[in-house]
Predict the 3D structure of the following.
Amino acid sequence: MSMHALDVEQVRKAFVRKERSPGRRNPLKRTKREEVIALEGISLAVEPGEVFGVLGPNGSGKSTLIRLVSTLLLPDSGTIHVFGHDVAADPFAVKRLINRVSVDAAFFKKFSPLENLMYAARLYGLPQKEAGPKMRSIMSRLGLKESTFAQPMEHMSRGMQQKVAVARGFLTSPILLLLDEPTTGLDPHSKRDVQAFVREIRKTHDATVLLTTHDMEEADRLCDRIAILDEGRIVALDVPSGLKALVPSSNGDRPSLEDVFIALTGQTFEEKEKPS
């Protein structure tokens, strides 16, 4: 029996939100504790070499799932294994196999892309002679001009910084790459560059990709299978064509993933994004 790249079994994660009631008398006793469930009974398996998408609006639990897989959080119950390694029992083995790109990637803003990537290479024990040519190659493939490689990050656009984040994520050649909304906020050209690089990773490298997004076209274009997450639960999981087959066509038009989401949740993504 082959080993999955990622096994998530009945995972639950909740956070405690504290609300202090108004009043000056003994304020500690007026603090209310409310449990907020981020994930409830999540189970999924990702095959080696697969691009697996997790689709859902903000607050659906996508980023919490990524943080759990990357060992930044621990599940309250259930198990997560990355190529057979338990994220709770063997986090250091997991960290050697993964890298993560998030929508809020942090950098040394005064440093250049090359300096930031070299710092990351040293953290992972990647030799400088190997890291130098590799980081230049990855950034070029992502559409960054060589003239920007030595510029301070603070002078770069949001899209350019996100490309550097993707380059940093792939620099260590992870066999599981966690992409947490990597194209959110990017201009269309930068978004296409990042998406093309994800496709290239799939074709030319032995890497598995877990991609979270609320961009349905992106998920449809990149992913082999997609789980739709809503309020911490998986409401559907299938290949894109299988998900779209859940919804009957209307006026001869083929259903989209937007149609699937509306059918399963009763709301559009835009409605889901609005604060309650």
Q: What stands out?
A: The longest strand covers residues 31-46. The beta strands are 6-20, 31-46, 51-55, 77-82, 85-86, 98-102, 176-180, 208-213, 225-230, 233-238.
